[in-house]
Write a structure and sequence with these properties.
Length: 632
């Protein structure tokens, strides 16, 4: 028998929060000693309300990203470039492979952290295989998105902005030692310092003067210190953000708008609209970071988005990529420069040296060339020419036709086999679910639930709304019972310790104080419309009674006798657990029914929950043993 004891310090409080100590005794051994802060439910609900607003803004950004940029810009741009015979695919494929490969390397670099999530029910080999397959598959999909983004962004830019340097030739021996490439590279690094200053000033003003809440936890990840090579992860993640986000968020919409403006007229207005759009979409797409007010990230990133867009329009992708990469790698590598562990200087040095890689390439090309030069006109977008088309295949080859013939005997054999399989399936398939089916509609379920609350004298305010869904089945308990007791035993448990098909009608308020909206009424109905149970969810801060264990047990046993017509004296008590609320004491009592002996190591159980002196919920279930779950 295990026991859990929770103590609270009455002399020190954090507003509605409580300082608590948890002790767990497993058998006769003390196995847990944990200090923690009990966060009040009202705070959690307000926080979730704020986070939902963050995520809603970000979801809007993602929808715009998919519809406008990926479907419209990337796929539409690819088709446009294909018609123009202006598709370059080898270079974006190589770039996508490098960026996706860096993501794979960063994931493998974080492997020590993966073992913290290892479920010991799995074999180590199975765990490793599952993660590796997921890693490779996920990055193949991501690599394809990179490839499509790079292809469309470079191709559309090549057609829209002839004065920009050709992206795939920037580090060539002809382009790299030019003052144009050097200036764009140095400009990106210098503007990163300006961006960091902007961030400091913005947070100082927003937090100190406006009272906004913007935690830095989303910007800095100290877990990188536990990776095999701590220097690799910030570089890999910053490279993905700097290269991919600039191509997708900047080049695709702005170059696409320029081409549409050239086609339909009003090129400047098209670019101006896309300039504003790219800033809003980029800022909204990053709004899922924690922050209050919910739009704080949008406000923060609007000005940087304008800067990124202006850099692209005037100078091309290179300075914006260098700026974005340097800014991100500076933030992501901060834990390395805050740490004092021995040998951390190696990681710091590698971050600095590899973070300056674009500059080293330019300087190396300059050293090989021996002098600085101007960027040749043929290395700008306007100097690019499509390849000469090959001679028509129809002029050099003889056309021929291919006939595919299936014999009548083979066709008849396949048809007969298909009909026989269909007949066998119709004859043997079981299309009805186990137990009693649903016979009432959703509308009827809501009406019956409302009638049950009225019968109990429960009058809900007008702000409450009713919603109904089919109660999800306890999948694990279903599978355990079926495998343990077979078809007949499983059927005997249905309607008792395993539920038949049920409607769950939920009555909840969507107006008023968010903490008080935690209150809900739930009515459970059988498929035929009979009431199977009513539960009442109370806000944590709602006042109520403080019952002793004996008083709570007496109330629970009376509820068991009334609800299921079961004599509590024939049940075996498994646990009695109390939960201290601010103004009441809640209890949960669990019993085992020894009359059900067919479940092997499993058990038929009943649980009754008390909120103060009110029976909040009572239900029966099949307890699945840990050994079976781990084997499963």
């Amino acid at each position: 028998i295990d026991h859990t004891f929770v103590y609270e310090r009455p002399d020190r409080q954090l507003g509605e929060g409580r300082l608590r100590l948890q002790l767990v005794v497993s058998g006769d051994r003390l196995t847990t000693l944990r200090h923690f802060v009990k966060v009040p439910e009202a705070f959690n609900r307000r926080y979730e309300e704020m986070r939902s607003a963050n995520n809603a803004i970000a979801a809007g950004g993602v929808v715009a990203l998919v519809l406008l940029y990926i479907l419209g810009g990337c796929i539409g741009g690819f088709l446009f470039l294909l018609r123009q015979r202006a598709v370059l695919w080898r270079q974006p494929l190589a770039a996508a492979a490098v960026v996706a490969g860096l993501q794979v390397a960063a994931s493998l670099n974080a492997w020590p952290l993966a073992w913290l999530k290892y479920d010991t029910a799995l074999s180590a080999g199975g765990f490793v295989t599952e993660r590796l397959v997921s890693l490779v598959a996920g990055n193949l999909i991501l690599g394809f998105v990179f490839f499509l983004s790079f292809l469309a962004a470079e191709g559309l830019s090549r057609r829209a902005f002839p004065q920009h340097p050709q992206l795939w030739r920037l580090w060539s021996r002809e382009a790299a030692p030019s003052s144009a490439v050097l200036g764009r590279t140095l400009g990106g690094y210098l503007l990163a310092a300006v961006m960091l200053l902007y961030m400091v000033v913005f947070y100082y003003f927003a937090i100190g003067k406006l009272g906004w809440w913007s935690p830095s936890e989303a910007l800095v990840d100290p877990d990188s210190l536990s990776h095999y090579w701590p220097w690799l992860t910030p570089l890999a993640n910053a490279a993905q953000a700097g290269i991919w986000e600039e191509t997708l968020f900047r080049a695709v919409p702005l170059a696409g708008a320029a081409l549409l403006g050239s086609r339909f007229g009003g090129r400047k207005w098209w670019i101006a609209a896309a300039f504003v759009l790219q800033a809003v979409v980029f800022a909204s797409g990053h709004a899922n970071y924690p922050g209050q007010p919910a739009y704080s990230r949008v406000v923060e990133l609007i000005l940087p988005s304008f800067l990124f867009g202006a850099l692209y329009l005037r100078f091309g992708l290179l300075p914006a990529m260098v700026l974005h990469f340097t800014y991100d790698v500076t933030l992501m590598a901060l834990p390395l420069f805050a740490a004092s562990a021995g040998g951390v200087w190696i990681d710091r040095t590698l971050v600095v040296l590899l973070g300056l890689l674009p500059l080293w390439v330019v300087l190396w090309r300059r050293w090989r060339a021996g002098r600085w030069s101007d960027l040749p006109a043929e290395l700008r977008n306007g100097g690019w020419q499509p390849p000469i088309p090959p001679a028509s295949i129809a002029e050099t080859t003889t056309p021929f036709a291919v006939r595919a013939v299936i014999s009548g005997r083979l066709f008849n054999g396949v048809l007969c086999a298909g009909l026989a399989g269909l007949a066998a399936w119709i004859a043997t398939a079981r299309v009805d679910g186990p137990g009693a089916p649903l016979k009432i509609s959703r509308t009827e379920a809501i009406q019956k639930a409302q009638a049950e609350l009225t019968r109990r004298g429960i009058k809900l305010p007008a702000s409450y709304r009713a919603d109904a869904l089919v109660e999800p089945r306890p999948v694990t308990a279903d599978r355990f019972a079926w495998q343990t007791v077979g078809d007949q035993g499983y059927s005997a448990l249905l309607g008792n310790y395993l539920p038949n098909a049920l409607w769950r009608v939920r009555f909840a308020s969507f107006a008023g104080d968010v903490a008080e909206r935690a209150e809900e009424w739930r009515v459970h109905l059988t498929g035929a419309g009979a009431v199977d149970g009513v539960s009442h969810v109370l806000p944590e801060a709602r006042a109520g009674a403080t019952l002793s264990e004996a008083e709570g047990r007496k109330l629970v046993q009376a509820s068991i006798r009334e609800r299921w017509n079961i004599d509590p004296s024939r049940l075996v008590e498994v646990s009695a657990t109390s939960a201290k609320r601010p103004h009441r004491l809640d209890w949960s009592f669990v019993y085992r029914d020894p009359a059900v002996k067919s479940l092997g190591a499993g058990q038929a159980r009943l649980e009754v929950e008390l909120a103060g002196d009110e029976v909040a919920w009572a239900y029966r279930f099949v307890f699945v043993p840990e050994e079976w779950e781990r084997s499963d």
